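Worked Example 4.2. Consider the chain below.
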Amino acid sequence: MIRILITDDHAIVRQGLARILEKDQGMEIVAEYDNGIDALHWLRANDCDIALIDISMPGMSGIDLLKQIREEKPKLPVLVISIYPEDQYAVRLIKAGAAGYLTKGCAPAIVVEAVHQIVSGKKYISPVVAEMLANECGTQDGKLPHETLSDREYQIFLLLASAKTVSEIADTLALSGKTISTYRSRILEKMHLRNNAEIMHYAIEKQIQA
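Applying the procedure from the previous section yields the following structure tokens:
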């Protein structure tokens, strides 16, 4: 029996994934959480065969949860299922240790296939992501400005590009406004931009969906 942990802040997504996966008689949902902090606490006291996690969650983001799982349970495979298109986060998360990346618009059969493949010890990488990884390896010296950002900086960059204010981002990520402002300044400096308007213009120009 494949034991699965689901972490997503939307109940309807958790329920949908549970229904899809438990149709396979070899799978069992052993825990569901709406935030990374509670999921991590559960993992410290319990075991499962695979963790399915979202990226955008209150408190601890999926990016931070993935990093903590890699530190504390390095053998536990993680499948990221996100609303963000593959070209926004897939390469970053695969490089950070995720065993696979799916968008929430994928077919149910793909989710089941990915879980089976990952639990068998392989990674689940779509042809699109495989191509992006190959391109990434070949263009390390010619990175675009947004590709130089850390995972947290990139997450905040996307939120700034979607016209969210510092206080709104602070609430979303459960960080202080001062911390977000520091990240914003760092993002502007790294990307050689002057303000939020230029961040939004850059995202539109590069067709980066926030």
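The beta strands are 2-7, 27-33, 50-53, 78-82, 100-103. The mean pLDDT is 90. Compare this with Example 4.1 before moving on.
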